[in-house]
Amino acid sequence: MGLLSIIRKIKRKEKEMRILMVGLDNSGKTTIVLKINGEDTSVISPTLGFNIKTITYQKYTLNIWDVGGQKTIRSYWRNYFEQTDGLVWVVDSSDLRRLDDCRYELHNLLKEERLSGASLLIFANKQDIQGALSPDEIAKVLNLEAMDNSRHWRIVGCSAYTGDGLLEGFDWLVQDVASRIYMLD
Amino acid sequence: MEEDDNLPAADSALQRKHAAMIERLSNSHQSRLARKPNSESNSTFISTSSFLSRFSESKNSIESTLSRIRQTPDPHTNPTLKSELDNVSISIADLEKLVAENSFSLPSYEVRTCLKTITDLKQLVEHVTSEVIPRKKFSFKNKSTKKITTQNDTVSEVPNVESKDSVLRVLDSPGFRGKENEVLVKEFGRGNDEEIREFVLSELKGCDVRLMGSVRALFVHKLIDCKVYVGPVFGSVLIEEVTNCVFVMASHQIRIHQAKRCDFYLRVRSRPIIEDSDGVRFAPYCLKYEGIEKDLEEANLGEETGNWSNVDDFKWLRAVQSPNWSILPENERVGTVDISS
Ligand SMILES: Nc1nc2c(ncn2[C@@H]2O[C@H](COP(=O)(O)OP(=O)(O)OP(=O)(O)O)[C@@H](O)[C@H]2O)c(=O)[nH]1
Ligand SMILES: [Mg+2]
Q: The domain spanning residue B273 has which CATH number?
């Protein structure tokens, strides 16, 4: 039995998934994680370092790594790439000026070999704000169509503030990862 | 995307699903709690002090291994050095994992000091490696050179993908832009759409800006010699490239980047942060206009939290006070500013 299938076996038993959340600072990563976990989101400081949340979602255990996105600490992101099953890229859809930065960082991230097998969910967050770009517009600006054909990806509009879209996004991600790792279960 | 007329049904289905999820979550949380005392004896849930002693133990051992490697006579011909260095890298990775596993139970200060230590160790390994092993055999693919890039020189952004409509929308975002020596006043309509908007202040010089009423997000970019007075922001304020300005603002979150010689009078629910800034000073919020109490109250900013002085400097991850910011001495503060018209 090859190593890969042994690893699959182990993961299969535990039904665990490792999810990495990244994106520019202020995009709403921590708010999303707390919201989906049903926790209070009224006082959140910018993340210095990272948080890990273990939540049960459907029949899976998700280990969600929420990593700070401030410029100074973006270079730490690569410390968390190993064994990532699902990648969540969060975008502040109302921060129009920094969309260039956002595209640059995303494409930079996608070059990373250790993430090449991860399913990619892009959350076009803050849809509750009036000036926010729609998910379609965000997809265009971020040039998502230019992504590698082999990548499983999807963009979902959401608001961590109201909760809209969060389950839709996570449902897709978890299903997509499950269908790859646990195959036909 | 769903059709509009599906929405109510989808909504309630979603809500049921969500409620069920939360119940499941709280159940699993309870069972986790119940399990906690004699939980699996791996490194999760160890106390801060035992964590720190473990951390510094491995740190010391890594450092002493490195210094031993460094002192090896004639390193270039020693075949075991490379594998020793690889082992050191593995130990560092383990250390990192230890921090990760304990990050949720550790005070954030410890977490970032540990992360800083880990980065330093990694640099040390790279350094020692380049000393003892000839360059050409060894290259670090991931060495980041991108950290130096700045976004300063892009004022108007024309994304290099065809996205004409979004560029138009960029210009559409409500705000004040490109003004000099003006008084700029905006009163956000109460209880209507405007309060769930974003607002932009960009490229202003010598202006006096007064924003009354509440707004959901505020973006501030490239201001020089300005005074900026802001009612409650029910969300976050993002400030970049400001010089010689005074800001009086209340918000749930405040992020300050590339600020020089600025004073901030803040009320904020979380910890304000600075990055790439210097000469910035902080004091408590001091704004008045007719109806501000009600606006603050409604935005959940009615009470002083004391957070105006809990500043985190992302460029200064040490225990001693950052040299980049200070508390504005009381005798230099402006006193209450009334912007009622
Ligand atoms: N209006 C609105 N505000 C949001 C939404 N999601 C997050 N925010 C606000 O955006 C700000 C940033 O949210 P965080 O969750 O701290 O962002 P983050 O991505 O974790 O930031 P870092 O930790 O610095 O990387 C906070 O003030 C949130 O309240 C949303 O969907 N709508
Ligand atoms: Mg965060």
A: 2.160.20.70
